[in-house]
Design goal:
Organism: Lactococcus lactis subsp. cremoris (strain SK11)
Order of helices and strands: HHHH
Structural class: mainly alpha
GO biological process, one term: bacteriocin immunity
InterPro entries: LciA_Immunity-like (IPR015046)
Largest sheet: none
Protein name: Bacteriocin immunity protein
Number of helices: 4
Helix content: 55-70%
Oligomer: single chain
Length: 101
């Protein structure tokens, strides 16, 4: 699986829809994707959603290794945040930003 190029909110939402159907990911990873998708559907700021997903994947990586496909999504989300975060915004993706599974 190759990195995703996320350019707008609609594309981000479509990627999450398709990714949730991926059979090569773990149930907890799928849950993170579904929570992110639900927030995007409710018009939550996309960088906030990406940040929460990254923090959640980091938490998962500590307890168990991420699947290969999820690692690709994780890196794509980090790139999306880096390219779109406003200048001067602190980059804090602490454990408190993660979804409660």
């Amino acid at each position: 699986m190759e990195k995703f190029a996320i350019s707008n909110d609609q594309e981000f939402l479509e990627i999450l829809y398709n990714y949730a159907l991926n059979l090569n990911i773990k149930d907890r990873e799928r849950k993170i994707v579904q929570l992110g998708r639900k927030e995007l559907e409710n018009k939550v700021y996309s960088l906030s959603v990406a940040n929460r997903m990254v923090a959640s994947f980091q938490r998962e990586a500590i307890s168990s290794r991420l699947s290969k496909d999820t690692s690709v999504l994780y890196n794509s989300l980090k790139d999306y945040i880096s390219k779109n975060i406003p200048l001067g915004t602190p980059r804090v993706a602490g454990i408190n930003a993660a979804y409660d599974l």
